[in-house]
Design goal:
By secondary structure, this protein is an alpha/beta fold. The protein has 11 helices and 12 strands. The chain has helices at 63-71, 98-104, 116-119, 126-138, 142-155, 161-164, 174-186, 204-221, 256-261, 266-273, 343-348; strands spanning 24-35, 38-50, 55-59, 79-88, 91-92, 109-112, 192-196, 224-228, 241-246, 249-255, 323-326, 332-338. The structure holds adenosine-5'-diphosphate and magnesium ion.
Length: 349
């Protein structure tokens, strides 16, 4: 059994985390959208925790909505949080005043999006946009803000940072623009970064470089990092633990090595089988049959059952809870859970 625990090697936190609890603790979160088509149940009882220096990758459906809800940028309406808690250092952000929440979001929690071009202002230089973080939030002078901005651009490994600071976003490659987004997110030294498909728009080789950079900075800054992706192939080397989502639920959680070597949910297995492999070049890629469900009409029982090669009668009637996964001798596997009636067959069979 391999478990990768990067938290064991990180330096002491910059400031002590209050108590011993996790940085972020999402509890039984439910989010729905009221649409003309009906109520789309996008997030249906999500639970997870992220600690300082820990990375969590998600793959499935309801990922962005979960992230937007944590970040406080969910469109309401049509979105509505119907249940749950989002504890940041033990305090429920959903119960805070707007001002308290604002202090956390943006400063303590930063977000990186897939599309840097639409997140950056095209008519302002990157130096101006980076510097603004320091001028507005930390009251630095123009000159000091510029020094800090160059430092940050160096840190995210943008070559010739001092010269490029007066360039505009379109003058950078996609990978370099994503590095600028990472620099913006880092500017205020947040405790947690939520990166939603941060490399999806990039070439495969550039994807790996940007992921490696994120992992390196996460260790250096001892931040929590939630890395959201639809592609399990890109988080293998970066994440500590993974939560796989399907139809708004977490269907499997596991330390990263365990998830890849022994998936305990047929959906995870399908996702892993769909990752292109270098040694199978030219072969047709496996795809999970069927489509994700319409969230206004989630199938009864396990939402994945209509697409599942292992589905039995019970799968079409009873929702499987996210239950602990054990070895054949009953030994509990730390951090592992599966919401499949037949996880035993899936992992051991
Ligand atoms: P992903 O896991 O691909 O990031 P999302 O979290 O973005 O998926 O969306 C999950 C589902 O939530 C969508 O399939 C859609 O049904 C619903 N949804 C998301 N945003 C909206 C919106 N603004 N209005 C209506 N429905 C939405
Ligand atoms: Mg998304």
């Amino acid at each position: 059994m391999t478990t990768i625990d990067k938290t064991a090697h990180v330096p002491a936190p910059r400031e002590s985390v209050s108590g011993d609890g996790p940085l972020l603790d999402v509890r039984d979160l439910h989010v729905e959208f009221h649409t003309r088509d009906g109520v789309a149940k996008a997030v249906n009882g999500v639970n997870y925790t992220v600690s300082a220096g820990e990375t969590l990758g998600e793959s499935g459906s309801g990922k962005s909505v979960t992230a937007q809800t944590i970040m406080g940028i969910l469109d309401m309406p049509p979105g509505k949080i119907t249940q749950g808690e989002i504890l940041f250092r033990g305090q429920d952000m959903l119960k805070m005043s707007n001002e308290e929440r604002r202090k956390i979001r943006g400063r303590k929690i930063a977000m990186i999006f897939q599309d840097a071009l639409s997140s950056l202002n095209p008519v302002l230089t990157v130096g101006y946009q980076l510097g603004e973080m320091f001028r507005v939030h930390q009251g630095l002078s123009r000159k000091d803000a510029k020094v800090k901005s160059i430092e940050l651009m160096d840190q995210v490994k943008i070559p010739a940072a001092a010269a490029r600071i007066s360039d505009y976003p379109h003058q950078f490659s996609g990978g370099m623009r994503q590095r600028i987004m990472i620099a913006m997110a880092l500017a205020l030294e947040p405790d947690l970064i939520i990166a939603d498909e941060p490399t999806t728009a990039l070439d495969v080789t550039v994807q790996a470089q940007v992921m490696d950079l994120l992992a390196e900075l996460q260790r250096e800054y001892n931040m929590g990092l939630i890395l959201i992706t639809h592609d399990l192939g890109v988080v293998a080397d970066v994440a500590d633990k993974i939560a796989v989502m399907y139809a708004g639920r977490i269907v499997e959680t596991a330390p990263v090595g365990e998830l890849y070597s022994r998936p305990a949910h047929p959906y995870t297995r399908g996702l892993l089988d769909s990752i292109p492999r270098l040694d199978q070049k030219g072969q047709e890629l496996y795809a999970i049959k069927g489509l994700p469900p319409n969230l206004t009409r989630i199938p009864a029982g396990c939402a994945f059952s209509p697409r599942c090669p292992k589905a039995q009668d019970i799968c079409r009637t009873e929702i499987p809870p996210l239950a602990p996964v054990t070895e054949q001798d009953g030994l509990e596997l730390v951090g592992r859970g599966s919401a499949c009636h037949f996880w035993k067959e899936t992992i051991h069979g």
